Amino acid sequence: MTRGLSCLLHGHLEAAILFNPLLMALVFGITIYLLYCVVVVSAGLPRLRWEPLAKITALAVRVGVVALIAGNWIYLIVRERAL
Fold first, then answer.
1. With 70 as the cut, is the pLDDT of residue 36 above it?
2. Phi, psi of 9 (to 5 degrees)
3. Which residue, 2, 14, 47, 72, could crosslink 22 as a Cys pair with Cβ 3.0–4.6 Å?
4. String of DSSP letters for 11-35
5. Torsion sign, CA atoms 64, 66, 70, 73
6. What DSSP character marks residue 69?
7. What is the C-alpha to C-alpha distance for residues 4 and 23, in angstroms, rounded to an integer?
């Protein structure tokens, strides 16, 4: 995690993504969300609202998140052994 963020802060985007792709996706998502928050608050716009998800959709989201975390974990293990 620290190597990826260090590369990102030094401007090496490709290296940061290679170190930990899921963390970088999370960092970019949080950045976009924070920019959205700044625009909404400063312009006085209404916030976006989420409708409650159907049970099958919520289950699919949970399974997808677990699959992403497991896939990222496997990627990190395989990449570390390759180095």
1. yes
2. -70, -25
3. 72
4. T-HHHHHHH-HHHHHHHHHHHHHHH
5. positive
6. H
7. 8
DSSP state of 83: -
Measured CA angle at 19 (ends 38, 73), to 5 deg: 95
Per-domain residue ranges of the chain: 1-49, 51-83
Q: How many CA atoms lie within 13 A of 76 on its CB side?
A: 16
- 15 with 66: CB under 8 angstroms? no
Tokens 């974990």 identify what position?
Answer: 73
**N- to C-terminal Cα distance for the chain?**
16
Residue 61 token pair: 């989201």
Average pLDDT for 9-37: 91
Give, in degrees to the nearest 5, the angle at Cα 81 between 80 and 83: 70
Contact 63, 71 (CB under 8 A): no
